[in-house]
Amino acid sequence: MERPQEEMSFLDHLEVLRWHVIRSIVVVITVALLAFFFKSYIFKYVILPHTMGNFPTYKFFCEIGRFLGSETDFCNDRLPLVIQNRTMTGQFSATLWISFWTGIVVGFPYLMYEMWRFISPGLYEKERKMARGFISVTSVLFFVGVLFGYYVIAPLSIHFFATYSVVGGEQMVKNEIDIASYIDMLRSSVISCGLIFELPVIIYFLAKLGIVTPEFMRKYRKHAIIVTLIVAAIITPPDVASQVIVSIPILILYEASIFVAKYVQKRQKIKLN
Asked: Where are the transmembrane segments (predicted)?
């Protein structure tokens, strides 16, 4: 049985942290190995479908365009790009990286579990009870963000750059994209959204530490909107529609975070009284 965290020395903390990290690495590697074994399925049904015209997001925007009486590039059977490999180890490296990130995404709940096991002994019993849903909440928010990135941000970004041409609608310059570049865009879109959706959890702990208050967040709401638009411009293609689509959930998360900070503040006042 481990000693209470308040009685442990700094080296004891490092030892405990080391084993949490080791267990987390083992889980990530295990999932990564399984992903490597099923690489053909993952690439065929998860990684490469964004290059096909029948991807659900493209079909959705195609139907919207038809409903409005106009044909769009979203109605094409296939995007005007070719995924290619230009290095001897390119496909093998791509498989390794996809396996690794699959291990991170799939193993995320366990990573949060190990994190919680490390920090929870330093909390009071009441605080542990209040934050009992930490693993579930962080995991749900992360996976919702991952799905948003996969079905909204990634296809919009990939479609924009695949159909963009320096000479207007003519494809005089072919888009022959290296597989590493394609995977980088897909990965950054998915992982960044997963992390952005953790905003309410981050605000919860900042509010617990007294760094952030609901009054502070309301006061700087306009600044937050500007930052949100900047973030949306960075992670999406440079068109207004995509930026608005991305900005809406981020703003909703910001408003939800205000309620989280308000809840924490209310609980702390009750505790003081």
From this structure: 21-42, 94-113, 134-153, 189-211, 223-238, 244-264
CA–CA dist 127, 223 (Å, integer):
32
Task: Please give the DSSP secondary-structure letter assigned to residue 77.
Answer: S
Phi-psi region of 176 (alpha: psi -120 to 50; beta: other; left: phi over 0): beta
Whole-number pLDDT of residue 1: 37
Q: Using CA atoms in the order 38, 41, 46, 52, what is the torsion angle rounded to 10 degrees?
A: 150
pLDDT tens sequence across 158-205:
888 888 777 765 567 788 899 999 998 899 889 988 888 888 888 887
The average confidence (pLDDT) of the chain is 82
- The closest alpha carbon to 141, from 246, 261, 263, 253, belongs to 253
Alpha-helix runs per DSSP H in the chain: 10-37, 39-42, 56-67, 90-106, 108-119, 125-130, 134-148, 154-163, 179-196, 199-208, 214-219, 221-235, 240-272
Q: Give the contacts of 71 (CB within 8 A, at least 6 positions apart).
A: 65
DSSP-derived letter for residue 80 is: S
d(CA 223, CA 161): 30
Distance of CA 187 to the CA centre of its chain: 9
